[in-house]
Write a structure and sequence with these properties.
globular; 8 helices; disordered N terminus; 157 residues
Length: 157
């Protein structure tokens, strides 16, 4: 039987410190939104929604004290795929899907900060692997998260 007292104490402590708990973070709502595009592809995601997601996640990741360089490392891997695909002429969706283990490795090293990013990028990666257009939307989403993270005061290192 679960021990609800410990959970309540953890949540109470987080509230007293002004921190968000996992339940009230924006991650679940964004993840559900992105799950809708797993079969359709990210190219169907309206630009306004993409910008809104990037803004909310950038701010939330800043609150978690995630460093910009940690997100940039992942972005560099995504950009490498873009270069390898010769700007879409030889796009390989398997390379996009193989970003998931890299993200999982990073999250395993820093669960508190990178796991929320992983939670929203996993469905985005699945949707971004559908076509080169979807992949470009994935790239735009990650760039947007970095931009808003920096805008909200995220630090480089």
């Amino acid at each position: 039987m679960p021990d609800y007292r410990n959970r309540e104490q953890r949540n109470f402590g987080a509230e007293n410190r002004g921190e968000r708990t996992q339940e009230d973070s924006p991650v679940q709502a964004i993840k559900q939104k992105l799950d809708e595009y797993k079969t359709k592809g990210l190219k169907e995601l309206p630009a306004d929604d993409l910008v809104k997601i990037a803004d909310v996640m950038g701010k939330y990741l800043k609150e978690l004290d995630l460093k910009t360089t940690q997100i940039r490392r992942f972005l560099d891997g995504v950009r490498r795929i873009d270069v390898q695909s010769n700007k879409g002429r030889s796009f390989n969706p398997d390379l996009v899907v193989l970003l998931k283990p890299k993200l999982a490795y990073a999250a395993g090293r820093d669960m508190r900060r990178i796991k929320p990013l992983m939670d929203i990028l996993e469905p985005a990666i699945t949707a971004g692997a559908k076509s080169y257009e979807d992949f470009k939307r994935l790239l735009a989403l990650i760039e947007g998260i970095i931009a808003y993270h920096r805008f909200h005061g995220g630090k480089e290192q």
